[in-house]
Structure formats: structure tokens, C-alpha cells
Design a protein that fits this description.
Elements (H helix, E strand, L loop, with lengths): L20 E4 L14 E6 L10 E6 L3 E6 L4 E5 L14 E6 L9 E6 L3 E6 L4 E6 L13 E7 L9 E6 L3 E6 L4 E5 L14 E6 L9 E6 L3 E6 L4 E5 L14 E6 L6 E6 L3 E6 L4 E6 L13 E7 L9 E6 L3 E6 L4 E5 L14 E6 L5
Antiparallel strand pairs: 1-2, 3-4, 4-5, 5-6, 7-8, 8-9, 9-10, 11-12, 12-13, 13-14, 15-16, 16-17, 17-18, 19-20, 20-21, 21-22, 23-24, 24-25, 25-26
Keywords: Repeat
Pfam families: RCC1, WD40_RLD
Protein name: RCC1-like domain-containing protein
């Protein structure tokens, strides 16, 4: 992989009249529908009157949500006690508010929600962060406090030309255009992957000593991290008490290890203590904690330290996208149908019930 000048500051995505939907817990307004009432079927996120038109990318944190519109502006809504909405206030919002541009964040091309902080990349390849910073997860050389406006992630350790970014619990991850993975923030379980368990408030390189290189995708769980290399091999590091690293053990790892039993992986995602992947045949896989059926293999309880196939008998095949929540999981099939499984106490499966499911259920068409 080489760093060619291929980051173009313009919007070339042909998106027209896109509509955002959300469902589940809404105690902080994180559904963005103008209420604070939980919903067990999808509802429309309020747009237009707030200025959010034609969303082209979305992400969710613990209790807040994020989007990019077709003008490459960043938006946020939900909980804001740590400034994770980035609008210059610490006031919760149940409708989208624009992330502040006062410090220079414009032309946003990627966005990611973490537990209580948020991350973005601009079209020059600069990484940005805002929100809680108790472990240095903003990556700006400071530990402690928070920021309710975006700050630049430090570049002095070498992180430039960022092409992908992801948030974990209290840590952050990025990939540069050379395929090098980087991490910063909390490191108590080795989730930074740099052969230590020492926190870092500036980006550090994820170790390649075990063979990880040419990284094309990353994801962050509460205390673990995931990656895919260009050969389709899945990797993991950090906390592993529930087998969320998928290496057949329950030992924490402070450098990347290969997830066993998988090949030709095209997408990866992390829940709080579980992990998810899609292979090139469109089969979804899961591993880690399964106390609420979040692995989707028809079992509730225990955990798995190796990947298990997500059940297909209810109709989930040809999976093209996947995501992890706290104790639930989500997927989209090639027909554009959304699916969910796991915990459903707040309606987060979106199937019109509040019943947990250990196999995939279709998300309702919404209100």
C-alpha cells in the first residue's frame, strides 16, 4: 500500500433524500426524534429543520449518535455531559446539532462514536476528537477533563493521512494510508496493541511484530480492538476474559493475535464484549460474550472464544454490513433488510417487541 494523493476535498457521493431511522433506548435523546421515549420500531431522525439533509454516514456511541451530511458536515445528538456532541455546549439534545467548526473541522469524510467521545477524519487525512478525555482518548497530548469542541489528534508521533477511524470504550483507533494501525487512550488490557499496558494520550503504532500489516479495517470494543488485513485475516488484541479476541484462549493480549477459523473476512465490528465479522460468502460470524444471545447462534448464555456462525435459518444470508451494540448485534443483507439479535430490553432489536432473541430477527419497516 502506498500513500498517493487520493484524498479529494469534495463531495462525490450521489446521495439524494436519504432518511435516518433509529430505535431502542432514548433516555438522552439519542434517537434524535425530538423525544426521550424508547422506541421498539424504527422512527425517523428529525432533519431539515435542524439543517441535517442527506446523511451519508452514521455512527453511534454509548448514549449519543453521529452523522455526516452530503455537504460533509458533522452532526450529533443525545447525551452531552462530556461534550461528546462537539457543539460547544454540555447540553443533551434530542435533535441533531451541528458539530462545531470553530477549531477547523470541515469537509468531514468519516465519523465514529465511542463510549463518551467522538472521532472524525477530514478530507486532508487529519484525525479529530471531542468529548471525554479521562484516559487520553482524544489523542491531543492531554489526559483528563473533556472537550466540547473538536481538537486535532496529535501528529507528532507520525499519524497522518488517516483513512479510517474507530472508537472503543476509552480508547481510539485509526489506520493511515500505508495500512499501519494506530491507537491511543486507555490501555489497561493491552487494547492499544503496542506490547504494553500503559495509557497513551498521543497515537502509538499497533505492533506488527506478530504479522499484522496492510490493515484495511478496524473496530473497537469496550476493552478490545479488532482489525482486518488485506489478505482477509481478522486480528484482535486487548481484553479476552469472554473470548472476544477469538483466538481460542481467554488470555488478554497486548499485541495483535489472529482470530482463528476465519478467512476472507470483508468486514468486522465490535460490541462491548463480543465481536462480529462477515466473510466473502456473506456469512456473519460472532464470538465473545453471549449472555443475551448477542452471538446469534441460537444459544443464550456463556461465551465462545472461537467464531461461531450466526444462524441463517431465520433468513439472514448475503450479509453486507454488520455492527455491534452493548449486548446486541445488527446486520444488513444484500436486499437492504436490517436484522438484529441479542438483548432487547429497550427495543434495540427494532422488531416491535422487547423480547431478547438469540437468532436474527428482521428490523421492522418503521413508523
Amino acid at each position: 500500500m502506498s500513500c498517493k494523493n487520493n484524498m479529494i476535498c469534495q463531495n462525490n457521493i450521489g446521495c439524494q433524500n436519504n432518511t435516518l431511522f433509529s430505535w431502542g433506548l432514548n433516555s438522552f435523546g439519542q434517537l434524535g426524534d425530538g423525544t426521550n421515549i424508547n422506541k421498539n420500531i424504527p422512527v425517523k431522525v428529525i432533519s431539515g429543520v435542524t439543517g441535517l439533509f442527506n446523511p451519508i454516514a452514521i455512527s453511534a456511541g454509548r448514549f449519543h449518535s453521529l452523522a455526516i451530511d452530503s455537504n460533509n458536515r458533522a452532526w450529533a445528538w443525545g447525551r452531552n455531559d462530556n461534550g461528546q456532541l462537539g457543539d460547544g455546549t454540555n447540553t443533551d439534545s434530542n435533535i441533531p446539532v451541528q458539530v462545531s467548526k470553530s477549531t477547523g473541522l470541515t469537509n468531514v469524510i468519516a465519523i465514529s462514536g465511542a463510549r463518551f467521545h467522538s472521532l472524525a477524519i477530514d478530507c486532508s487525512g487529519q484525525a479529530w476528537a471531542w468529548g471525554f478525555n479521562n484516559r487520553g482518548q482524544l489523542g491531543n497530548g492531554v489526559t483528563g477533563g473533556s472537550s466540547n469542541i473538536p481538537v486535532q489528534v496529535d501528529t507528532t508521533t507520525g499519524l497522518t493521512n488517516v483513512i479510517s477511524i474507530a472508537g472503543g470504550g476509552n480508547h481510539s483507533l485509526a489506520i493511515d494510508c500505508n495500512g499501519q494501525a494506530w491507537a491511543w487512550g486507555r490501555n489497561n488490557f493491552g487494547q492499544l496493541g503496542n506490547n504494553t499496558t500503559t495509557d497513551s494520550n498521543t497515537p502509538v503504532q499497533v505492533s506488527g511484530g506478530t504479522g499484522l500489516s496492510n490493515v484495511i479495517a478496524i473496530a473497537g470494543g469496550n476493552f478490545h480492538s479488532l482489525a482486518i488485513d488485506c489478505s482477509g485475516q481478522a486480528w484482535a488484541w486487548g481484553r479476552n476474559d469472554d473470548g472476544q479476541l477469538g483466538d481460542g484462549t481467554n488470555f488478554n493480549r497486548d499485541e495483535p493475535v489472529q482470530v482463528i477459523g476465519l478467512s476472507n473476512i470483508i468486514a468486522i465490528a465490535a460490541g462491548r464484549d463480543h465481536s462480529l465479522a462477515i466473510d466473502s460468502d456473506g456469512q456473519a460470524w460472532a464470538w465473545g460474550l453471549n449472555n443475551r444471545g448477542q452471538l446469534g447462534n441460537g444459544v443464550t448464555g456463556g461465551s465462545s472464544n472461537t467464531p461461531v456462525a450466526v444462524d441463517t435459518t431465520t433468513g439472514l444470508t448475503n450479509v453486507i454490513a454488520i455492527a455491534g451494540g452493548q449486548t446486541h448485534s445488527l446486520a444488513i443483507d444484500s436486499d437492504g433488510q436490517a436484522w438484529a439479535w441479542g438483548r432487547n430490553n429497550s427495543g434495540q432489536l427494532g422488531d416491535g417487541t422487547n423480547n431478547n432473541s438469540n437468532t436474527p430477527v428482521q428490523v421492522s419497516g418503521g413508523a
